[in-house]
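Newbie here. two chains, one complex. Structure please?
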Amino acid sequence: MNEMLLQLGKNAKDAETELRNITTNKKNEVLEAVADHLVECTEQLLSANAIDVEHGKANHMPEGLVDRLLLTRERIEGMAEGLRQLVSLEDPIGEVTGMKKRPNGLLIGQKRVPLGVVGIIYEARPNVTADAFGLCFKTGNVVILKGGSDALHSNEAIVNCIRETLGAHGVTENAIQLIADTSRETAAEFMKMNEYVDVLIPRGGKGLIKAVVNQSTIPVIETGTGNCHIYVDESADLDMAVNIILNAKTQRVGVCNACESLLVHENVKEKLLPVLAKRLQEKHVEMRADKEAQTLMPGAVAATEEDWGTEYLDYILSIKVVHNVDEAIAHINKYNTGHSEAIITENYSNAQKFLDEVDAAAVYVNASTRFTDGFEFGYGAEIGISTQKLHARGPMGLLALTTTKYVIYGNGQIRP
Amino acid sequence: MNEMLLQLGKNAKDAETELRNITTNKKNEVLEAVADHLVECTEQLLSANAIDVEHGKANHMPEGLVDRLLLTRERIEGMAEGLRQLVSLEDPIGEVTGMKKRPNGLLIGQKRVPLGVVGIIYEARPNVTADAFGLCFKTGNVVILKGGSDALHSNEAIVNCIRETLGAHGVTENAIQLIADTSRETAAEFMKMNEYVDVLIPRGGKGLIKAVVNQSTIPVIETGTGNCHIYVDESADLDMAVNIILNAKTQRVGVCNACESLLVHENVKEKLLPVLAKRLQEKHVEMRADKEAQTLMPGAVAATEEDWGTEYLDYILSIKVVHNVDEAIAHINKYNTGHSEAIITENYSNAQKFLDEVDAAAVYVNASTRFTDGFEFGYGAEIGISTQKLHARGPMGLLALTTTKYVIYGNGQIRP
């Protein structure tokens, strides 16, 4: 293995031992201090970021990405504020649950402990650097970051600032390490460091996530893509339906819990679709509809098979007429990405059926899919939204960065 | 993709939809019926198994493996009994926990649901076939089995018998499917069927598990290997220590929770080791000791560096003298496989330190490591012992074969 990665791995293992027993008070003290120091380092962060931004522009980076890359005084304050919010969250580490006396006298419980070493692979978004550190540190995890090459100077500046604070507070600086070599070869090697890294979390677009899932031998928590549907049932309150569809589609379009596809029961298509078409056009939403819907939606173009499986992340909505709730559920289970799905209905049995049979992280009755989010669900912080079924599903709060170990108190028990 | 695998995957997806809503009563009825029918099929199972056993012997299969492969009337009864025991276990599916009203009126809870499609890759142990089906079926999961080529006739006979029962009870036969092509190429393709399989569980030796972890792009639950330690502290009750060590080493040697390595505090080495050596020799345990221990244990040979990292699964024990509990913990965290570790001590602080700092699925004070087991922990059934940190850690009961989905009841909420 690459010497640099090996050293990083060893450093992380040593730091893991130290963080395993750090108190909540100490963690909170450090998080506050890191927040303060990030703001103190504003000038350094801005000048490092300026290099990345200039470089990005010179390389014709799309405007949206440049915006994500850009740091401002306000955004640095925002990173600091994110860390301060973590202080007020309950520390999940150390709780022992289910402690029970077995018939042979053994007392067995499950203690919540850090995962150990968390690897984060992400794109050119420097705010993820501080964010991921905060979530991992609050849960006693060591973090190794592999950011995009486009944000290298920014990430280095942020990590240096964090490490300075750790050192000043007598905590191992290796609680956070950044892989400075942003080559693909190094990334590929990093994804096979099972001996040193307990879990890998990719944060970014579809391509990044797929690459990590395919290459990593370390367990991966897959976050993200959302081809989310809303199904308007025969019995729906149609005003409510229009409001929810517009909210889920247009309140923010570039996010994974936005609605991408609409299914409408044939018995309400005539009442709903013309009205909806008008409202969608006001918001400049492109409509891609099947034949039945197209005739009722002026301005709609014909949807192709590809549309049903596409997460647009844009002002585009696919629309299809279905004949009953079963057809809607079957369509959703065929094309969805396991993120968020909603039914609008006043029918009790159809609501229950939809909740039971749709296979997704979050299934809604009569509400916008836009609520699938750590803050909205009441966790107060989020490491991402898991679309896989193992370990964590849906919005992941601090608990997703922990595991348990069995602790067993005996007095000489042997197995007969 | 291989046409056969693709068809298996599609069948599994269809079956998944059916099993998502099957009632506990129906599942229990089928489990009872499968148990009965397996016993009814005894003659067919024995003749199919005879082909595998004969073939194994002709190919010089080691005796231990032939024994694992062999079916007898008693063992078939045992498989049936295992299925009947599942009937009495509580069905975890459908429970909704943490249901809370959010400030905006949304009612959000987490519903326990099946994982979906579970893949099991295992070696020539036909009992795993019935066992894995039972655990998966009780939790509403579809199972795809990839057994060893050495047990193919036995596995086919068992799977046919189960599918007959499913059909007779009006349940999809594809709740269980066996990959009849036992080639490595097919196995390798199977491990990349992310679209159809939600989790892969390898059951078998170290080599098999490692191959699956390295090749699979499907999330894997790693079960298994156990390089388990016992540390005898300065303050230990030495009679208790001897009893526990002998139990953990010799009660059954070929299992993952058996003790493989002993650490002894230098202040008790003279009292403990000569007595222990005698008792171990009575049980024909080979002792591989470091220099300090070797002089106190007649008959002990010198341990090599390799010994510290070896899971013997045999009548062999490595022994090392340490200077304090910290050295013991550091040694364990360096060489263990994250399975089961024990301290024998009367010292409160050392007991707590050991529980806190040793990184393993199960950490014991004053008890034998042999208790790490689904039945002993009170789960009544076990799909394996997870030595990884994600999703499940330690003995995995039915809960490990489930996930959750968020169910959200609204009345028109949109995101501001």
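Moderator note: Chain A has 15 helices and 16 strands. Chain A touches chain B through 66 residues (CB under 8 Å). Thread marked as resolved.
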